[in-house]
Structure formats: structure tokens, C-alpha cells
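Repro:
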Amino acid sequence: MTSSKIEINSGKYFAYCGIGGILACGTTHFSMTPIDMVKCRMQIDNTVYRNLTDGLHRIWKHNGIQGVYQGGLPTLLGYSMQGMGKYGFYEFFKYEYSQAMPTANKTALFLAASATAEFFADIMLCPMEAFKVRLQTSGTPFCSGFVDGLSRIYRSEGLHGFYKGIVPLWMRQIPYTMVKFASFENIVAGIYHSVLRRPKSEFTKGQQLGVTCTAGYLAGILCAIVSHPADTIVSKLNSSAQGTSAGQIVRELGMRGLWAGLLPRIFMIGTLTCTQWTIYDSFKVKIGLPTTGGN
């Protein structure tokens, strides 16, 4: 397939960007389930799980492969849907905002487009995220299977059970995505302009993907730091009794508690973001589209 068959900024283009987002986010988040499992457990009780290695060892010892991949299915489904919205809507809103505000600062456009995209993407993610956190933080087996788990949440809390973490999720994901996209676009541009000092068009597609990977990891480190306190609140909120508020959790944890599990998350998000951008841009190259940023 060549780029002439997919007009840039057409409906077909945005749809393919959404497909790229599914491939980028669903697979990568699923592959990082063991690290996410330990991170969630550390956020709930950091006295039992001292660090990443200790946590993986303890979970593997007691539950084996099934234990370290607890929550894998809702992770795969939830983040596939979120990826579709995140990348597809980002490209859509970036184009729409640039048309509405042609003289606006580019970084401002990246920030506005990514924030809007993530708002909708999180609505798609939230039910599966709530289910995943229940599975990963429950002291005893939460359910006997996927359908049983969804039914248990709905019977006990109704639709609210799936969306009670939506505000903290927005608090975590919107700043995260704003940093992810704006920093990535600017880092890519900076690499071509200040490091390589040659236009993007002078490099092969493989070399461009190398720039994508490097910029993705650097952006991921920034994402992890910016969004970590809200991530801790989401994990704690979804594992707490009904009626517990985000404010109560902040007071209970304190500043130190909000940053529990940061190092595993930096490793996880850095690797995730690098891999996601590489998969996304590789997919675009495969179907004849240009890599993201640096134009």
C-alpha cells in the first residue's frame, strides 16, 4: 500500500492511525502486565513488596505464570480501545485545531489535541482498568473468570463501579498523554535539528524509526514522573471500599505514599512509550505513511 492511497488528514488516514494505536497500546501494555502487577501491589502495600524483583519473585512463587499475568485480558482489551482513541483522535484533533488556529504555537496544538483525545480515550479504557486493578490488588481471587468479574462489579456497584475512577484516571492520563505527545514531537524535531542537523527526508525509514524509538523512551520517562501520583490514587481507589474519595486517599498516603512504585513505573512507561511509538510509526511506514514528527 502506498501513501497515495491514503490521503493525509482524511477519514481513512485517521482510521488507520486508530488501528496503529490499537497495535501499539494493546500489545505493549499486555506485555508489561507482570511489572504493572508488582507496581499496583506496591502502591497498595509497599511493606510486603519491597521492590520490582522482590515483588515478581513473591508473586511467581505463590501463583506462577498466572499470577504475574493477572489482569492481562482486561489490560489487552482496555488499552487496545484506549490506543485507538488516543492515536486516532490525536491526529484528528491536531489537524482540526491547526485548521481553526493556523497561527497557534505548535506545542500548544500538540498539548490541546492530545488532551482532547485522551479525554475520550479514557472513557473507553475506564471499565477495563477498574476490572484490571480489582484483579491485581485483591488479596483473594476476585472472580472465576472474565464475565464473572464484570458481573460482580456491576451487581455490587452498578455502572458506577466501572467509572468511579474516571476522574483520577483523567488526572493521570491527560497530563501523561499531553507530555507523551508534545514532548515526543518536540524531541523528534530537536534530534533532527540539533543532533543530526539534517532534514528528516534525508534519512532512510529505518533511521527515522531509530529517532522514533529514542524520542519515545525519553518522552516516556517524563510521562511516568508527571502522572505517577494520580496513578497511585487510581490503584488505591479501585481497590478501596465503595464511597472512598480521592481526597481521603491522598490524606491517607501522604506525599511519600503517592510516589510509591515510581521506579518500576519509570522502567515500565519508558519501555512502553518507546515501543508504542516504534510500533505505531512502523505500522504507518508499512502502509506508506510518514513517521510522526520532525517535518
